[in-house]
Amino acid sequence: MTLSTRHAYLFWSCLQVLNRERYDALIKVFGTLEDAAKHVDGELLRGLGCREKTIGSVLERMEKCDPEQEEALLLSADARIICLGDQTYPDRLKDIPDAPVFLYAQGDLGILSQPSVGLVGTRKMSPYGRRITQEFTRALTQAKIVTVSGLARGVDSLVAEETMSGSGATIAILGQGLLTLPPVSAALAKQIVAAGGLILSEFPLRMGADMFTFPMRNRIIAGLSLATVVLEAPQSSGALITAKLAFEYGREVFAVPGQIFDANYAGCHAIIRKNQASIAASPRDVLEEIGVIVPDIDPDRVLYAPQNPEEENILKILTTMPQNIDELVQKSALTAGSLSAILTVLELNGAVRNLGAGQWVRT
């Protein structure tokens, strides 16, 4: 079997057999997934630790797998597939021990390098939960933080809608393939992509959701995010799985408290009580903890419009999290002298802020 790199990705993804440990083992032995694909049989799968029942189903999927057909579906969906070993694979997600080997993506992969926060919660929001979700999402969006959620109804969809209404960027993680979304979710996903956001899924394009796929999705939300905030969650909420995973990954976890008799906040109170989450009394608590220089929002402020491509590029690179000159030189591919001159102009126009010691943020 001879496959291109992308066809090899599609082939292995459709087999649904690779986790990070198995991927690493294949790369160590064969060097590439293309070469590994030439050797797929029962013996190889046993060597990867697959059970006999799993081996049978994988070999059956292998017989049905047509990488060229999957490629055509990928193109028709205006989607891409990236692999754990690719440069485009997000660094924060790569840091978790159970990072997905493949990601299907629609939208702007560039926002994966920007600071992001996971906002999660129940599908059955209370009026108080709606208000909390709106307030936190708007504040993070104003601070140029990318929001990450799951595209389900309730808190997830409101996070996406509020982010877009504030001209921010959002990432939605799916618990199913890109081509299996119900109409309402598909329409929202299309809006997110059109607004400069991103849709991600680790599942093959035509794979539907089941009881296992949503918990798997939750680890991606936790892994991509500098912090996870539980906005409203009863004791049985799937949002608590995301919070637990973020806690295990060593990421910041926050929970918004509610009234002590409110069952919709029993989950939030439980993880606060167990010291698995800090109290988020305001969005500023979250922003300051992850190192954001919280801007003072002036409703009458006129945003500076970049005057040339270099200024536009610098404003895209800068965030509300401090970056030093060396980082900015590397990301912008400018000389230190040229960069300093541009930053001075931007500072005079109120678009950036010099924190001292060579640290800069966007205002």
Secondary structure topology:
Elements: H1 5-15, H2 20-30, H3 33-37, H4 42-47, H5 52-64, H6 67-76, E1 80-83, H7 91-94, E2 102-107, E3 116-121, H8 127-142, E4 146-149, H9 155-165, E5 170-173, H10 183-194, E6 198-201, H11 213-224, E7 227-232, H12 239-248, E8 252-255, H13 266-273, E9 278-279, H14 283-289, H15 309-317, E10 323-324, H16 325-332, H17 336-348, E11 352-356, E12 359-362
Parallel strand pairs: 3-4, 3-7, 4-5, 5-6, 7-8, 8-9
Antiparallel strand pairs: 1-2, 2-6, 10-12, 11-12
Helix pairs in contact: 1-6, 8-9, 11-12
Descriptors:
single chain, 363 residues, alpha/beta, DNA polymerase, domain 1, Rossmann fold, Arc Repressor Mutant, subunit A, 9-stranded mixed beta sheet, 3-stranded antiparallel beta sheet
Could you explain the architecture of this structure?
The chain has 363 residues and is α/β, with parallel strands linked by helices. It contains 17 helices and 12 strands. The strands form 2 sheets. It has a 9-stranded mixed β-sheet with strand order 1-2-6-5-4-3-7-8-9, sandwiched between helices. A 3-stranded antiparallel β-sheet has the order 10-12-11. The longest helix has 16 residues. The mean pLDDT is 93.
